[in-house]
Design a protein that fits this description.
The chain has one domain (2-114): 2-Layer Sandwich (GTP Cyclohydrolase I, domain 2), CATH 3.30.1130. Helix content is 30%, strand content 36%. The protein is built from 4 helices and 5 strands. β4 and β5 (107-114) form a beta hairpin.
Length: 119
């Protein structure tokens, strides 16, 4: 299998358990790994045969508009499932880095979701 990786896409989303933390958008770094066989795309040199990583990046940048989450875990699962549905990768891994603990470089969660195709 082949991998397309978007590393550390900077977004500003409303996320946090306390309401005061969710009140202001905070900086997150999101990485998305999409697993898919792109040998056909490479052989044909055709974007339609692979995952359009630019389109994925635009979708992730706008995912948080008008929304908020208490947990970055919830956000990660929603993103992985949504990217899989919308862009057709066989498996999607999302890692979200949050900069909330002063004594730590960051806190992160990572989730992997297989994409289930509907008949």
């Amino acid at each position: 299998m082949d991998t397309i990786l978007i590393r550390d896409l900077e977004v500003f989303y409303h996320v946090g358990v306390p309401e005061a933390e969710r009140a202001r958008a905070q900086r997150l770094l999101i990485s998305v790994e999409m697993i898919q066989d792109f040998s056909k795309a490479a052989a044909m040199d055709d974007l339609r045969e692979t995952v359009d990583y630019f389109a994925v990046s635009r979708r992730v940048l706008h995912w948080g508009e008008g929304r908020s989450w208490q947990l970055i875990e919830t956000l990660a699962v929603e993103l992985a499932a949504g990217i899989g549905r919308e862009f057709g990768a066989e498996r999607v891994t999302v890692e979200i880095r949050k900069f909330i603990i002063a004594e730590a470089l960051y806190v992160s969660v990572r989730t992997t979701r297989p994409v289930v195709s509907t008949p």
